[in-house]
Amino acid sequence: MALLDEYGLTPVIVWPDRFRRYRLAIKEPLLLVEGHVTHRDGTLSVVADRIAPLAPPAAGPFAPPRAENWG
Fewest beta carbons less than 10 Å away: which of 6, 13, 29, 45? Predict the structure, then answer.
């Protein structure tokens, strides 16, 4: 899996036991991933310990666009 933030893509390692535990959350478009950072062969990765879905914000730059009624 990969996380995208303002710094770019970060690989996330999800071991099989964690995948089975959080498989429903992983399907959500916004996630909170808690874990530890590893640095190996010049690559930073996050090894996931916990994964939780995040609700989209109601306001701000990441909020869904408002629908307009033109009729």
Answer: 6
Task: Judge whether 62 and 56 are in contact, CB under 8 Å.
Answer: yes
Domain presence at residue 44: yes
Total domains in the chain come to 1
Largest CA distance in the chain: 58
Q: What pLDDT, on the 0 to 100 scale, is given for residue 20? A: 96
Domain extent, residue 23, equals 2-53
> Residue 15: inside a domain, yes or no?
yes
Answer whether residue 66 is part of any domain. no
Q: pLDDT for 4-47, tens place per residue?
A: 878 888 899 999 999 999 999 998 888 899 999 999 898 889 99
